[in-house]
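Throughout this review, each integer encodes one residue's backbone shape. One record appears below.

===
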Amino acid sequence: MKRVHFLATFVFLAFAASFAFASDPSPLQDFCVAINDTKDGVFVNGKFCKDPKLATANDFFFSGLNIARSTSNPVGSVVTPANVAQIPGLNTLGISLVRIDYAPYGGLNPPHTHPRATEILTVLEGTLYVGFVTSNPDNRLITKVLNPGDVFVFPVGLIHFQFNVGKTKASAIAALSSQNPGVITIANAVFGSTPPIRSDVLAKAFQVDKNIVDYLQKQFWYDNN
């Protein structure tokens, strides 16, 4: 009788645990507005899938992360993505890669956040000063200087950056825990949005003169992705 009671209890707890750990899948774009008529549907949480029987090796292949790209731009860095847009086979698999190249003497991957992914970065060459800022109220800066072979993790959603502090070019490979991690570059989003955020809002938020905000909003905010 005790054995039957134990088995019944175990089955109940296992069933309850399945509900406790269940959750909605993470969104794969900024938003997905529900509609009742599927004929008007354009996006799904991910992408539409082809018939598995029609899949080929090229659906799971990408070439080019070994190639350094030009960093001749205002921030001195460039990102080469390998996500679901480049590798269709990544759809629903929850992972992607990027290569980042940095110019000597200050190439910067500016402060940004990935709303849908944690990032783990490995330095291939050069010396990078990297870091992220924790959430409110602490806003603690956690930084490290990385050399070739070093690895650093940027937790999901937190603002982070990489800065080349060396005299030579640098490069890194990063893996992200989403097929479409998204990127929000802080300066671009705040001062380069379309349409612009009202300058009096930003002046009060940053506690600076409105003329400074007007100046910043007139700048060209480069996107290195």
Observations:
- Residues 9-23 have pLDDT under 50 and may be disordered.
- The first strand starts at residue 77 and ends at 82.
- The longest helix spans residues 2-20.
